């Protein structure tokens, strides 16, 4: 049985000896919050950065852990796995290891907070929910994993002047939450971040743990996910299921301009959450349609970046595993697609992606990139052989057009454009992170746009 998580709030740290472990984006927000409380913490990082303020930062392996052992509380950045032996060491000494988001939730007005989690779709669902709330006339902050920390003094986001907070929660952050708001949304579930969590089932438990912390009453969940419906016991005391096929005549989400059935479901989940939270106007289709107008889609999430010689270029660089890439393919029914996949190899199973590509009922050509490209190509080749063996119509021309490895994104984009003419889609949906070749998914998306512009 999992031990209860310590319910500490930021205000509890005002007189404590505090260590900050990890100085990434959220780590610096933690530092600013403690400064506003008059606390000068011990700073520790696995790879100490050069601090512009001249504060000493200890390396974890070179005196940092010993310094944290002298603290009353350690505030950990989400990127540091909760399953590291150092965390067990600190916990064994009775030192709470907490996260900044959990410290904020512990004293927030949870009736006005929505937590959104899921392997994919959580950022779009969070941004749609925040847009609707704003256009309905409420002051709303959208933050957490998607943006600013809700307690960061630099963002003026912890002032309490908001009517609602929509907080995207990553699987890393979920392990730090001591409580949850009454309504939690879960957009999808698929294997991811297995090295951090130590295994797929532990990842599922951690990802869904926000649904069962004290305070959770209702989970609004994706009904189209078998992995979720099979784990209803992890979804809290009450579940409302939402499918992409719900409300087939509803058109209020059309002004959002989001392609794909999965984005229709994301919008329906957002609306169901607003209704569950008792937001006035959320149940009114006419008001919601007016509120949906003006929505700006998030970058690198099925974003059309241009058309060249009749070919549409779509940046879906944030798709870092199989689930969103399959959803991206489904978003262009009947269209000829040149799909660019591959990146940092985390060892995930690409067989479901290969099966979906080969079975797609429209012409599809795949170009793979290092490092996971060869594994993806091997799975696609096998899926194509399996389909051919089962094909009862030997004269039927297959719609799958083949797969080739490419050394870099630039050559892949050029070759994809040539094949996709005259009216197809070049889709960057890598099903892999960008680590190694690019700084992050944004850098990869920008490189994709440059490659498009470089085509004569």
Write a compact overview of the structure shown:
The protein is an alpha/beta fold.
How would you describe this protein?
This protein is an alpha/beta fold and 456 residues long. Helix content is 34%, strand content 16%. The chain has 16 helices and 17 strands. The chain has helices spanning 25-36, 60-68, 85-92, 100-105, 122-135, 171-174, 194-197, 200-208, 226-229, 261-276, 285-292, 322-330, 351-359, 373-390, 409-420, 441-453; strands at residues 18-21, 42-45, 58-59, 73-76, 97-98, 113-117, 140-144, 164-168, 183-186, 218-222, 239-242, 303-308, 311-315, 337-341, 364-368, 400-405, 425-428. The chain has a six-stranded parallel sheet, covered by helices on one side. Strand 4 (73-76), helix 3 and strand 5 (97-98) form a beta-alpha-beta unit. Helix 5 (122-135) crosses helix 11 (285-292) and helix 12 runs parallel beside helix 13 (351-359). The chain is globular and about 70 Å long. The mean pLDDT is 93.
* Count of separate DSSP helical elements: 16
Our Rg estimate from Cα atoms comes to: 23 Å
Give the percentage of residues in beta strands. Answer: 15-25%
Mean pLDDT: 93
The shape, in one word, is globular
The count of DSSP E runs of length 2 or more, i.e. the number of strands, is 17
Main-sheet strand order equals 7-8-6-9-10-11
The biggest sheet amounts to:
6 strands, parallel
Low-confidence stretches: none
The termini sit apart by 61 Å
Quickly give the structural class: alpha/beta
The percentage helix is 25-40%
